[in-house]
Structures are given as C-alpha cells and as structure tokens.
Amino acid sequence: MPKLFAMAMRACRLAALCLAATGGLLAAAARADNITVTHWGGQFYGVPYAVAMDKGFFKAHGADVTGILTAPGGGTAVRNTLAGGIPFGEVSLAAAVQAINAGEKLIIVAAGTQSVADQMWAVKKGSPLHGLKDLAGKRIGYTAPGSVSNMIILMALKANGMTAQQVHLVPAGDLGANLSAVTTGALDAGFSDSLFYAQNPTLIEPVFWVKDVMSPRMMQTVCITTVEFAHAHPDIVRGIIAARREGLDYLRQHTDEAADITARAYNNPDVKLFREHMKELAGLDYWSDGKFDYDGMNHMVEGLQITGQLKAAPDWSKMVDTSFLPADQRAAR
After folding, report:
1. Is 101 in a helix, a strand, or coil?
2. Contacts of 215 (CB under 8 A, 6+ apart)
3. Among 46, 92, 87, 42, which residue's Cα sits nearest to residue 244?
4. In Å, how far from its chain's centre is CA 134?
5. CA–CA separation, 139 vs 49, rounded Å?
6. What average pLDDT does the chain have?
7. Which of 13, 130, 229, 332 has its CA 20 to 30 A from that of 294?
8. Does residue 6 have a pLDDT over 50?
9. What are residue 310's DSSP bridge partners?
10. Are 281 and 112 in contact (CB under 8 A)?
C-alpha cells in the first residue's frame, strides 16, 4: 500500500506539473502582443506597422507588438481590436464612430490613412458598364457595413446625383471576395484598389475611380483603444503610435525596402508590384503621421449622415484624445 500510495503521489505531482506547464503556455498565448489593423495582408493600411515590426521600432518604444490581427472592415475590425492581446487597432473611422455612439468605451488616439485616391469600383473585363451612372439598378459590392468602402460608395452616389435606393448595395467581404463575386456574375461591380487591379488586369477593369467622382481627401482609418487600457497603459499606447510614425518615416525614406518588408509580411511574392504601389501611395501622402485632419474626418463620416445614422458631424472633442500624440502632432490640420 505505501508503495502504491507513493506511486500515486508521484503521478499527481507529474499531472500538476503538466497542468502548470499547459497553463503557462495558455497564459503566454493570452498575453500575445497582437494589435488589429483592418485589411491586414490585403490593403496597405498596415505598411507602417509591418516596417515597425521588422525594424524593431515597437520594442524600442516599449510596446513589443509581435503580431497583427486582420479584419474585413467595419465593425469586425472594432470587435477584433477589443479581442486582441493589446486592445489597440487601426479601423475604419465610421466604424469607430458607430461603436462609440453605441456605448463602447473607446477613444480615438491617432489618425491613420488620409486619402482614397487609389480606390475604385471594378467590373468584369469587357463589361458594357463604363461609369458610375451606369450602375443604376445594379448590384454593387463593398466590404462590410460601416467600412471605408461602405461610406465611399454612399458618398460617390450622392456626388453624382444618385441615391442608395437606386442601386443594390451588397456587403461582399474583402477585396478577394469582391473580385470573385464580380468575375462570377454575383455582383455587377465590386470594391477594389489600384494594387488589386494591377494584380488582376485580365479579369477586371475600373468602372470608376473614387478620385474622379469626388474629393479623395478623407480620413479613412483611425487608431483606437479602450478607455480602460489607455488609462492603465498610456506608455504602451504612446509607444505604438510612436513606432508607427517611425515606421512611416522609414518607408518614406526607403520606399523599396518598405515594399519588400510588406510583401514578406503579407506573404505575397510580387515584390515588383508592391514597390510600384508603395511609390504611388507615398506620392499621394496616403498615410497620416498621426495628426488629425478634422475636415477629412467629417468628409468620411458623411456616409453615416446619408443613411441617417448621424444627424450632424460628430463632436470630436468627446471621441478624440490627442494626449497620446507627440506635442508637434496635437494641433489639428
């Protein structure tokens, strides 16, 4: 009996050690320092973060971001932000406003991307549709409700004297899903951008470029975090913002290298095309260094006003906290 008891005790101790080890691994996984960037791996919102991770800028600023979660846009990106290892994300401005208005304890802490000049709606190659007004009565895809593309198509229609009721708007998913729906005939037109078009020139062609139907100066994305996390970990929030800015500065000075880094991060072998697109976006002043452009922000959320989800321009003073930005970025553009 004593021998059996001793064996049982050893087995219990071994099981306890295994549970402790497993628990430690699960805890480590739970603490993984992931943040969220909408359309990571597809669109170029995430380039400053890819560069910052590759060059060690996050760690240098005390925010050791080790991975990026993606989302197809809209409210999904906000939900992923809340679920990330670090509740920090770059998401659609409209989705951030909707979440805050719905009672989520979030704050906007930095600006993200500030131009939509590279974006377009595409049709199947050889389509008889050649302009926005040709889309009356047609099925038009965008990514997700509350997304950048959702706001843009609403504003593009309005700018051309059309309404959402004159077309059939469909939340189709990411750019790949929009492409598939267009080429199979499930959609008449789908959301795309210059890079995706350049990758698929035999399949699709532009039906209209956003820059040709309205002003491309819009604050597409912003950086958000929870009020609780911002108060508990202000240095991490400042560190992420500072690292993103350093990544942006680096890509402006080393555009080809930044393209190569992004191609690796996105698992895309077409480095030549990435280099061309990076130069295009840098020339458009696509990324904000963090400073808020309130005119561009008001322009972006016009889509929410068109649908009646906003009665007037947001009170940015209640949604935006500039204290996490460097002093030279706190004044509005």
Report:
1. helix
2. 299
3. 46
4. 30
5. 35
6. 87
7. 229
8. no
9. none
10. no
Q: Tell me the domains of the chain and their CATH numbers.
A: 34-115+218-329 (3.40.190.10), 119-213 (3.40.190.10)
What is the C-alpha to C-alpha distance for residues 178 and 185, in angstroms, rounded to an integer? 11
Model confidence at 3, pLDDT cuts 50, 70, 90, reads: very low
Shortest CA distance to 150 belongs to which of 176, 122, 172, 183?
172
DSSP string for 5-26: HHHHHHHHHHHHHHHHHHHHHH
- pLDDT score of 303: 85
Which pLDDT score is estimated for 73? 66
226 pLDDT band, cuts 50/70/90, is very high
pLDDT at 323: 96
Identify the residue whose tokens are 């959320």: 301
Q: Rounded mean pLDDT of 198-209?
A: 96
pTM: 0.83
Residue at token pair 């509740």: 87
Nearest-angstrom CA–CA distance, 6 and 145: 62
